[in-house]
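Q: Please design a sequence for this.
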């Protein structure tokens, strides 16, 4: 049986070398090695990824030939060891060093002495290392301190103050609370709270929606309640996109980018399983997962289909009362869940996403009937992908008007504009953008 540090190393190698998502990869390896919770593994993986730039900056003082010349295994072992020395106060320094050396011997025996020397050298000289000067190199200072690529900080500083930008960086490095959505086709919030509490979970109401519960405890996706579809793990920001859509019983609703299915399931619930709900996605395996969830949740009105949102479905033109376009995006709003986004995304991708998003939104708009509702949403914090896409769409499609979804809810969220941009440092949700439009012509 592999120890936890070996498993963490394998996960980090896959994330680093194959650009895999950390959350998916962690769950894959925990299943592979039959590990129930893997708290230390999660801490190690997320901690190393979240602090990658800072760790490499620190290591650069002690690796004279440069980090790029190191084997991936050796570099990641050094990051893991340094993370333990800097951030894990419960791990004795000697244990962090010895475990790192032993781990190196398994993967690159000739580097064991090198790893030992680097880590012991850091322990002796750590107080001599300082961050880049905040006054002279502000962006570099933030980049190293919070481990974000400089271009992301530059993009946010174009729009937000230095204080707000730094708060955004801090929030992106924090572990989010676990929020679940009560499936009211099967239960209600009060009953589910009691059932979860009886199983040892700490439960409190969501911050904004009556369907939301914030839960602490182990095994949320490994129990009978989850398997029976009593709830779905879903952030309130994602739920708010469906609330903006406001699907009602007997509506015809189309979700053009439905997978993994949380929004479609919520819409079916709000429709009380009455009407039609088309859930489209381009990936067959995601449609299969959506169908499985729909069955367990009792969402009988969902009709899923493999369909590319970039390809117009002429059979749907002017047929739907409500259409949701939760489009692919850079994901800058969910960095706290997928910290590798800080390093895998490039500035030029924002423009590429914006073009794809506009084309999907344009197609989705043709499915809307007169007086029908169109909702555009992303899980990013990027003007190019959000407000600028809407601005282009409204300029080229005069038949739509932007409306505020819910005055009381917007007041509760602290939002004054018609379009909704959520921030992890303000609303404590994922960074999410939602725009509701009504078709007048």
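A: Design:
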């Amino acid at each position: 049986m592999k120890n936890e540090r070996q498993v963490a190393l394998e996960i980090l190698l896959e994330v680093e070398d194959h650009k895999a998502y950390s959350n998916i990869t962690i769950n894959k390896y925990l299943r592979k090695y039959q590990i129930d919770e893997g708290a230390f593994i999660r801490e190690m993986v997320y901690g190393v990824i979240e602090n990658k730039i800072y760790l490499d900056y620190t290591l650069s003082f002690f690796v004279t030939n440069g980090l790029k010349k190191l084997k991936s295994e050796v570099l990641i072992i050094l990051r893991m060891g340094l993370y333990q020395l800097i951030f894990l106060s419960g791990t004795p320094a000697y244990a962090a060093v010895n475990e790192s050396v032993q781990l190196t011997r398994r993967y690159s025996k000739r580097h064991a002495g090198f790893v030992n020397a680097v880590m012991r050298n850091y322990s002796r000289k750590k107080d001599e290392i300082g961050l880049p000067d905040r006054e002279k190199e502000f962006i570099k200072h933030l980049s190293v301190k919070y481990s974000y690529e400089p271009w992301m900080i530059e993009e946010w500083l174009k729009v937000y103050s230095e204080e707000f930008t730094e708060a955004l960086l801090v929030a992106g490095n924090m572990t989010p609370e676990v929020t679940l959505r009560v499936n009211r086709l099967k239960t209600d919030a009060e009953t589910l709270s009691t059932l979860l509490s009886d199983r040892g979970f700490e439960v409190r109401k969501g911050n904004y929606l009556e369907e939301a519960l914030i839960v602490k405890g182990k095994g949320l996706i490994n129990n009978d309640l989850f398997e029976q579809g009593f709830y779905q793990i879903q952030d309130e920001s994602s739920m708010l996109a469906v609330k903006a859509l406001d699907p009602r019983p007997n509506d015809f609703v189309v979700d053009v980018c439905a997978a993994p299915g949380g929004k479609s399931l919520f819409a079916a619930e709000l429709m009380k399983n009455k009407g039609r709900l088309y859930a489209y996605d381009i990936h067959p395996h995601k449609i299969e997962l959506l169908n499985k969830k729909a069955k367990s949740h009792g969402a009988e009105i969902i009709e899923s289909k493999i369909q590319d949102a970039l390809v117009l479905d002429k059979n749907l033109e002017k047929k739907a009362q409500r259409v949701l376009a939760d489009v692919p995006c850079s994901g800058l709003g969910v960095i706290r869940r997928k910290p590798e986004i800080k390093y895998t995304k490039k500035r030029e991708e924002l423009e590429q996403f914006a073009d794809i998003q506009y084309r999907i939104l344009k197609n989705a708009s043709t499915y809307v009937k007169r007086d029908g509702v169109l909702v555009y949403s992303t899980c990013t914090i990027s003007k190019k992908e959000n407000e600028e896409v809407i601005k282009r769409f409204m300029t080229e499609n005069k038949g739509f008007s932007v409306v505020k979804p819910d005055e009381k809810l917007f007041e509760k969220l602290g939002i004054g504009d018609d379009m909704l941009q959520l921030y992890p440092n303000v609303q404590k949700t994922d960074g999410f953008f939602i725009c509701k439009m009504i078709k007048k012509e």
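Q: Thanks. Anything notable?
A: The chain has a mean pLDDT of 95. The radius of gyration is 24 Å.
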